[in-house]
Specification:
- With 384 residues, the chain is an alpha/beta fold.
- It folds into two domains: 166 residues, Rossmann fold (3-Layer(aba) Sandwich), CATH 3.40.50; 201 residues, Dehydroquinate synthase-like - alpha domain (Dehydroquinate synthase-like, alpha domain).
- It contains 14 helices and eight strands.
- A six-stranded parallel beta sheet has the order 1-8-5-4-2-3, covered by helices on one side.
- The longest helix is centred in the middle third of the chain and has 23 residues.
- It is globular, with a radius of gyration of 20 Å.
- The two termini are 37 Å apart.
- The protein binds 5,6-dihydroxy-NADP and zinc ion.
- The site of 5,6-dihydroxy-NADP has 33 residues, from helix 4, strand 6 and helix 6.
- Zinc ion binds next to helix 6.
- Keywords: Oxidoreductase.
- Belongs to the iron-containing alcohol dehydrogenase family.
- This is Iron-containing alcohol dehydrogenase.
- Its cofactor is Fe cation.
Length: 384
Amino acid sequence: MLNFTYKNQTEILFGKGQLSEVPARLPKEAKVLFLYGGGSIKQNGVYEQVVTALEGIEVVEFAGVEPNPEFETLMKAVRVARETEVNFILAVGGGSVIDGAKFIAAAVNFDGDTWDILTKGASFENPLPVGAVLTLPATGSESNGNSVVTRKETAQKLPFSSESLQPQFAVLDPEFTYSLPARQISNGVVDAFVHVIEQYLTYPVNAPLQDRFAEGILQTLIEVGPLALDHPTDYDVRANVMWSATMALNGLIGKGVPQDWSTHMIGHELTALHGLDHAVTLAIVLPALMYVQRDQKKVKILQLGERVFGIDNGSEDERIDLTIKAVQDFFESMQVATRLSDHSIAESSIDNIVANLERNGMTALGEHGDIDLDKARQILTLAA
Ligand code: NZQ
Ligand code: ZN
């Protein structure tokens, strides 16, 4: 096992009615930036519940954070946060709103061009504290320090990360997810699944507990994912999807083991250039990437096949093929297509995608740093 340090500062407030716990966790003399997306919370009643919970507390609202949050929109919110001198950001929504809140938190007291935080890893001081009310289980953003920001103008989608931005608390009320359209439930389950894979499907380092945590989350997602599509208001099903997605990327399962993240980095370019939903990009890239990296990932692919999908017959090559197919079939069973052509992206677009990877410095991806531009091209061609 590799060395690691581990701390997760996010207090999880899980279950029905937990929103009422929020006021007690805000700073004294709180002035809260209440940040949300395109209005789903106004349709499903979450907005009213938040307003009621925050009664008597000074609140400044900022609506309109879009999926794949836009730098321009977030900078508008930064200006509002500076002018109104808020001292806390409450993000109510999915990964986009929570990621957006983290960027705003980092940018508020930053002197200079805030885009440098994303492109140059510029350091920032005194970020505002963030809290999250999650409405879409998927990204794990509610209990990690990551944020991904998009800039349409330059066709870039870039991640940054800091422990200091990790939400102080996260309300996980499964009832808040009942209103999700099927497409977003599918996205969430696939995203969480791939988060686990990025931290599991590398090479063995004698970390059996991390492996079994990871396999347990994968098995749970395979079990409850399809049920969540069929039974949108089943509390227990939604609760198990929600907790699985949080556990998939709250840092725990990735401690002491190598991590990959190449599927994500290649996927980000597909969103930046073609506007595909985040999880859709992952479902396209991962099976092809497993195929191209089958030698480097051999031991773990065989382990995934046997322990998660029950594939224990045949030669190693046959079992690897069957395991890749099982992953692909799972995505398809969640109604997420796995080829570029399913989204009318022609093979001729691959040059552009590879050029964007190069521009963003994504030239040595994966746990061995061996996914260069040629390999990325091979992966995308296989996924065409
Ligand atoms: O904008 P609103 O009105 O809120 O509607 C959203 C949005 O249209 C809707 N939605 C959310 N909760 C709902 C709901 N609709 C009905 N009922 C509800 N309860 O769903 C749509 C998608 O929301 P979004 O927040 O964009 O989805 P998701 O949570 O999948 O977040 C995706 C973003 O997170 C980033 C992705 O790159 C992408 O930008 N990621 C963040 C990560 C992290 N912070 O660790 C890791 C991930 O790998 C990912 O990269
Ligand atoms: Zn993801």
